[in-house]
Specification:
Low-confidence stretches: none
CATH class of the largest domain: Mainly Alpha
Protein name: MarR family transcriptional regulator
Oligomer: single chain
Largest sheet: 2 strands, antiparallel
Domain HTH marR-type: 1-119
Order of helices and strands: HHHHEEHH
Number of strands: 2
Organism: Acinetobacter gandensis
Helix content: over 70%
InterPro entries: HTH_MarR-typ, WH-like_DNA-bd_sf, WH_DNA-bd_sf
GO molecular function: DNA binding; DNA-binding transcription factor activity
Strand order of the largest sheet: 1-2
Structural class: mainly alpha
């Protein structure tokens, strides 16, 4: 349901939740390759390729060379940066409206629990990666 609401917010910008995820990851990481993005979002490389193609068609992404000539790093274009800022404001307002009914202490406790769950999952994944 959350992604449906975000899709509705992003529709006027010709975006959807999955395209927003790509923009968000690129912005958070200061740029990354498609492979890094697929791993981070835990989705297939062809899925990322489709999203990158759509965002490139919207002039939101720029491909830059890396040391490995087989891979290109993706960064947000100036237009992509502007679009990211506009959409961030909309999404932030939406999220604030959702949590406004909760007490600050309850929110902080929930954030703490989610962070511990993420840490547990990351440790489990590291253990799996080392076992391979």
């Amino acid at each position: 349901m959350m992604s449906d609401e975000v899709n509705t917010l992003l529709l006027p910008y010709q975006l959807n939740y999955s395209l927003w995820q790509v923009m968000f990851v690129i912005r958070e990481k200061g740029g990354c390759t498609s492979i890094e993005m697929a791993e981070y979002l835990n989705v297939s490389k062809p899925s990322i390729a489709k999203r990158v193609h759509a965002l490139t068609a919207l002039n939101v992404l720029i491909h830059v060379e890396t040391e490995d000539k087989r891979q290109k790093k993706l960064i947000l274009s100036p237009q992509g940066e502007d679009l990211f800022k506009q959409c961030s404001v909309e999404i932030d307002h939406f999220e604030k409206a959702l949590i406004s009914q909760f007490l600050p202490n309850d929110i902080q406790q929930s954030v703490s629990i989610f962070n511990r769950i993420i840490q547990t999952l990351e440790c489990a994944k590291l253990g799996e990666d080392h076992a391979k």
